[in-house]
Amino acid sequence: MAPKKSVAWDHFTDKGDFKAECKMCKAVFSYKSGVTNLTKHIQRKHLAVNLVRRDNNLNQLENQPIQEAQMNAPPMSQTTATGISSQTATTSSMVRSHPSSISAFLRRDCNKIKKEIDDHLMNLFVCDMQPFSIVEDKGFRELIKFAFPNYTIPSRKYFANNLLPGLYEEVKTATKISVSEDASSICLTTDIWTSRNNDSYLAITGHYIDRNYNLQSVLLECKVLEKSHTGVHLAEEIKNVTQDWSIPSEKVLLVVSDNGANITNAVKQILGWKHFSCYAHTLNLAVQKILGNSYIKDTLSKVKSIVSYFKRSNVAWNKLKTYQEQANKVVKRPLQDVPTRWNSTFYMLSRFVELKDEINCAMSNLDVVNCTRLTSYDWDVCQSLIWVLRPCEEVTREMSGQKYVSGSSVIPITVGLTNALQEIATETYRQENNISIFPDEVEMCRQDLLSEINSRFQNLERSRTLTISTFLDPRYKLYFQNATVAENTKHHVVGLVTSMIQQTETNQPTTTGSEAPQDVQEKKSNSLIWQHYIKTMKNVRPTGTANSRAIIEVQKYIDDSVLSPDMDPLTWWRANQSIYPNLAKLAKLKLNAMATSVPCERLFSVAGNILTERRSRLGSRKVQQLIFLQQNKKH
User: Fold this and answer.
1) Which candidate, 348, 396, 389, places its Cα nearest to that of 598?
2) Which among 61, 335, 593, 631 is most buried, taking Cβ atoms within 10 Å?
C-alpha cells in the first residue's frame, strides 16, 4: 500500500474499506475520492490542530532556502529523494513566484479562525453572562493558550467596545426585519426594575405569531429610565420604542403590565391602547390579602419561625437531615417564603408538611429557643391551607409561560379556578380525596379568596380582546360563563370575517372563481379542447354574499371537534388554515395576547445575573446591549 502523505492521516486511523476514524472525536469518514473530507473535518471541528504539509511548512518555504531544507531532511532512498526533491522544487518555485498570494492565503485562513474563536468567546459573555474580565484571568488565559497556541486573546476592552456594539447592531437589524415581515399584530409586555446600582430599567417585550404559526417573543428594549416614572414619561418611552421598531399603533393588540397607576395611565389614557393588568400579579394581590388576615397569619408566623430556625442553626439542620436519612427519604431543606410572592408561601407549607414527622422528631430532641412548636390543630391548618392554595398555584404556573399562547386561557382558567375553590369544600370531593373538614380559619380563607377572585376578575368577559382570543382558541371556542357573551362574540367574529372577505374581493376583484380558470387559460390557451371551459367559467363567481360565507366558515369551526386543553392551538391552526382561511388569518392577529408580564420579570433575573459584583461597573449602555443579545441572539 502506498504511504499516506497527507498530514490529515496524523489525526485519523484507517479502518479499512476506505473509511477513516478521527482520533480526537471518533467520527468516521469516507476517503474514496481523497482526503478532502478528513482535512475539512479537522479544519471545522478541531481548530487547535495546525494542518502542515509533511514535506515542508509553507511558512518555512517562504523564508528558508531550498538547499537548507534539503540539508536538514533525513536520509532517504534515491527514488523517494528524487520524487520529494521534484515536489519540493515545484512547491518552492510556486512560493518564489507567488509569495504574496500564499501569505495572503495563510493570513486569510488565520483571520477566519481568529474570528471564529472571537465569536465563541462573545457567546461566553452573552449566553453564559461571564464578565469581560475573564479574559484577564490567569487560568482562562492558560486554557486558551493550551487549546489555541497561535491565538492571542484580545483585551477586555476589545470585546466590550468593539465586538459587543457590532454584534448588537447585527442582531437588532436581523430581529427588526423578522418583526417587520412576520408580525401582523404584536402584544407588548412591560415592567420596571431597579438594579444593584440603583438604576431603573424599563423593559418592553413583543409577542407575535409568525407566518408558520409559531409564537415569537423578542426583547424590543431594556433601557435606563432617566426621567421620573410618571405616566407621561412612560408613554413617551414606550412610543419611542415602537417607533424605533416601526410598529404602528394599529398593530399593537394589547399592552400587559402590573397594576401600577402610572403605567396603566400611560397605556390607556395617553397612548390610547388596550391595556391588561398582569394576571399573575392580580392573583398574587388577591392571595396575599387573604394570607395577611389575622385568622391565618398566626399559624404562618409559627411555620416561618421554625423554618428560619432550621436555616440558621447547623445543629438543627444536621438533626433534621439525620432523621430524613433514617426514614430513607431524599434529603430536603425547609423552604422560606418570599414576602412579595404568595406562591413561595405555598411551596414553604408544602415542604413543611412533607417533613412533618422529621421536623417534630428533630424539635423534640433540640433545645429550641424562640420557636413555638406546632400543635396538632396547627398542622391541620397547614395541610388544609395547601388544598385551598393549590388551584391558585397551578393557575399561576400555567399562565406564566411565554412559549405558548396564554391570553386566550384567561377566561376559561378563571372559570376553572372559581369552580375548583367551590368544589374542594363539597362533601363528595373531601370523601373522594380523603380530606378532613377544613378548620374554621381555612374555610374562612377559602370563602374570602373566592370573593376576592370574583371581585378582581369580574370584568374579564367584557374585554373584546380576551373574548375573541378565547373564541379563536380551538380548545375553548364558546367556553364562557355568560351565554350572551358567547353569542355576541360569535356575532362579532362573523363581522370580522365578513370584512376580511370583502377586503379581499376589493383588492382582488377578479380573484373569485376565475383564478383557477385564469391559470388554466395561461397554460391551455393553445388547446382547443379547453376553449369551451375557459369561456364558460371565466365569469363564475362564488355563491352567497361575504356575510353568508363568513357565517358558514365560523359555524363550521364551532361544529368542529374541540381541541384537548394540553394541545397547542397554533399547531392546530397551522394544520387547518386551508379549511378555515379567514379565521386562520384572524387567529394570527388575535391569539398572541399574553396573560402576564412575566416575560419582563424573567428578563430582570437575567439583568441581575449580568450585573454581578464583577460586572457592577458596566455602563448602562453595555448592560442594555448584553441583555438584548442574551434574549434575542439565536445561539
Assistant:
1) 396
2) 593
The pTM of the full predicted model, rounded to 2 decimals, is 0.77
Report helix angle 99-126 to 78-97, nearest 10.
Answer: 80
Cα(337)–Cα(303) distance, integer angstroms? 10
Query: Residue 547, exposed/middle/buried by CB under 10 A (0-12, 13-18, 19+)?
Result: middle
What's the CA gap between 524 and 520, in Å, rounded? 6
As to burial, measured by CB atoms within 10 angstroms (0-12 exposed, 13-18 middle, 19+ buried), residue 371 is: middle
* pLDDT at position 451: 97
Please, which residues have CB within 8 angstroms of residue 163's CB and are 6 or more apart in sequence? Answer: 118, 122
**What are 229-245's pLDDT values in tens digits?**
999 999 999 999 999 99
Distances in Å between the Cα of 232 and the Cα atoms of 223, 312, 613 are 17, 47, 34
Q: Can you tell me the mean pLDDT for 281-289? A: 94
Instruction: Return the DSSP state at 338.
Output: B
Alpha helix (H) residue ranges in 480-619 = 483-507, 515-524, 531-537, 546-559, 569-576, 581-590, 598-610
Q: Give dist(CA 207, CA 217) in Å, integer.
A: 5
* Full strand arrangement of the beta sheet holding 19-22: 12-16, 19-22, 28-30
Q: Name the residue type at position 60.
A: Q
Q: Tell me the pLDDT band of 61, cut-offs 50, 70 and 90.
A: very low
CA separation for the pair 6, 519 (Å, rounded)? 58
Phi, psi of 252, rounded to the nearest 5 degrees: -80, 105
Helix boundaries (H) for 131-278: 138-147, 156-157, 164-182, 231-244, 261-265
Which residue type is seen at 154? P
Domain map (residue ranges) of the chain = 7-75+87-92, 284-461, 463-590
Of residues 315, 277, 199, the one with CA closest to residue 620: 199
Q: How far is CA 504 from the centre of its chain?
A: 35
Per DSSP, the three-state class of 236 is helix
What is each CA distance from 583 to 139, 411, 426, 493, in whole angstroms?
A: 59, 20, 41, 9
Strand segments (E) across 225-328:
252-257, 275-277
Task: Phi first, then psi: give them for residue 153, nearest 5 degrees.
Answer: -70, 125
Question: Is pLDDT of 68 > 70?
Answer: no
Q: To 10 degrees, the CA torsion angle through 555, 557, 559, 565?
A: -140
Q: How far apart are CA 418 and CA 397, in angstroms?
A: 16
Task: Please list the residues that pair with 513 across neighbouring strands.
Answer: none
Q: Is 453 in contact with 283 (CB distance < 8 Å)? A: yes
At residue 285, the 3 state secondary structure works out as helix
